[in-house]
Amino acid sequence: MPGEDAALPKLRPHTISTVRAAALAALVALACAACSPDREASREAPEEPASARGEDDAAASEPEQEDGLPAVIFEPEGEEPARVLVEVADTPAAIQRGLMYREHLPSDHGMLFVFPDEDLRSFWMKNTFIPLDIIFLGADREVVGIVADAEPETTTPRRVDEPSQYVVEVNAGFSRQHGIEAGTPVRFEGVK
Fold it and tell me: Can you say whether the dihedral through the CA atoms of 116, 117, 118, 119 is positive or negative?
């Protein structure tokens, strides 16, 4: 029938656009799910976000110049304090991104993850190219556990059995080199 044929061209572009939009939305959702953390992790399996995602990256506490970088100071008993200049990951987007895609990290640099509360945390090394020590700190800013020499580019959950509110990632071997272990007190400088 002529009336039906005339209607098809009007529907076809709309249908094609709808199918394309749905396919694009599905691809974006899959890409996001591949990188999203779960509620216990900053970069783990994608079931549920660690906290409300969607905050703007501009709110992250990243200083503009290296001299102004905040610091985490580990104070192991019987050892010299070990100072690490840190980027602060305190927004959901910054926590999710972490140190992914970095090919180099200076020996005295790292990242401090700041969570709103103390909870069991778990991290993975997907898209992380540098072997790391992952140091978990309680709300009292004392080391509660360490995952040393975390293997890059893996999705194995890395965790300790104690709740933490802060996590510091540094180059692999840093903890051993500076005598950092569970119970080591930690100070923050310039961290809001």
Answer: negative
Q: Which of 17-26, 138-147, 174-183 has the lowest mean pLDDT?
A: 17-26
The pLDDT, as a whole number, for residue 57 is 38
Whole-number pLDDT of residue 192: 83
Burial grade of 9 (CB within 10 A; 0-12, 13-18, 19 or more): exposed
Q: What is the CA radius of gyration of the chain?
A: 22
> Which 3 state secondary structure label does DSSP give 9?
helix
Range of the domain at 101: 57-189
Q: Kindly report the backbone phi and psi dihedral angles of residue 70, in degrees, each rounded to the nearest multiple of 5, phi listed first.
A: -65, 165
Retrieve residue 80's tokens: 């010299």
Residue 4 belongs to a domain: no
**Tokens representing 41?**
């992790």
Which residue has tokens 């895609």?
101
Closest-CA residue to 76 (of 183, 191, 188, 189): 183
CA distance 4 to 1: 6
pLDDT at site 107: 95
How many residues are given for the chain?
192
CA triple 180-121-124, angle to 5 deg: 85
- Give, as one character, the DSSP assignment of residue 77: T
How many domains, the chain? 1
- Label residue 66 by pLDDT band (50, 70, 90): low
